[in-house]
């Protein structure tokens, strides 16, 4: 019997395209929605084997919605789609994902076999939280020094990068991080070095960092919140 899934993505056009592709690949897409608030309704109506969530615009809400769905069906498979090569850019850490959840980069969705495999694994491997196989492999991003270098950044550096991109001053970041402004300056300097962004008097380093950040992260008018 075909696996039954529900797609939750704020971009309903992307959901419909993906639903059509999955149907052609033998996955039964019971419904699509652009609202996380519909999750409980769809769980009771369709009793899906797995949910597929967009993890970019409202990452925290997606996690909360997935946990609510798991309260209804503890064996529910969960797959999160993202545009970013490292979910720490969204304020998330792997250990904060629901058990067995699979994360797959949208670029690899063109290889539907990978997505279908991730759906099946999310159902079968509920005792393992894993960032899904080659879908998150850096080989997909060989054209970007930034994406490759993310692997070497610490949690503090990723968090600082996010705060810089959200327009926070060094003083504001220092207050959030409970450190000195000098410590923030050192963190930014180390990030520039790790990301191989050369100092240029014609360009503000914060602008260069923000530009790289927003190449991967889609956000709306609400600034993402830190996950403690």
TrEMBL record:
GO terms for molecular function: DNA binding. One of its GO terms (biological process) is regulation of DNA-templated transcription. Residues 150-208 form the HTH luxR-type domain. SUPFAM superfamilies: C-terminal effector domain of the bipartite response regulators, CheY-like. This is Unannotated protein. It comes from freshwater metagenome.
């Amino acid at each position: 019997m075909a696996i039954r899934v529900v797609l939750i993505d704020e971009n309903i056009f992307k959901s419909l395209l993906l639903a059509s592709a999955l149907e052609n690949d033998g996955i039964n897409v019971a419904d699509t929605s652009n609202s996380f608030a519909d999750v409980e309704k769809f769980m009771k109506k369709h009793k899906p084997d797995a949910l597929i969530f967009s993890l970019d615009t409202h990452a925290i809400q997606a996690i909360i919605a997935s946990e609510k769905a798991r309260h209804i069906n503890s064996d529910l498979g969960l797959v999160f789609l993202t545009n970013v090569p490292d979910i720490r850019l969204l304020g998330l850490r792997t250990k904060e994902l629901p058990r067995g959840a699979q994360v797959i980069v949208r670029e690899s969705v063109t290889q539907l076999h990978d997505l279908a495999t991730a759906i099946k694994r999310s159902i079968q491997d509920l005792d393992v939280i894993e960032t899904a196989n080659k879908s998150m492999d850096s080989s997909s991003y060989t054209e970007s020094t930034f994406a490759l270098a993310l692997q070497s950044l610490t949690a503090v550096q990723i968090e600082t990068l996010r705060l810089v991109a959200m327009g926070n001053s060094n003083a504001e970041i220092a207050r959030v991080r409970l450190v000195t402004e000098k410590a923030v300056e050192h963190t930014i300097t180390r990030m520039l070095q790790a990301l191989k962004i050369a100092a240029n008097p014609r360009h503000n380093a914060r602008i260069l960092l923000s530009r790289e950040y927003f190449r991967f992260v889609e956000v709306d008018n609400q600034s993402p919140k830190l996950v403690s």
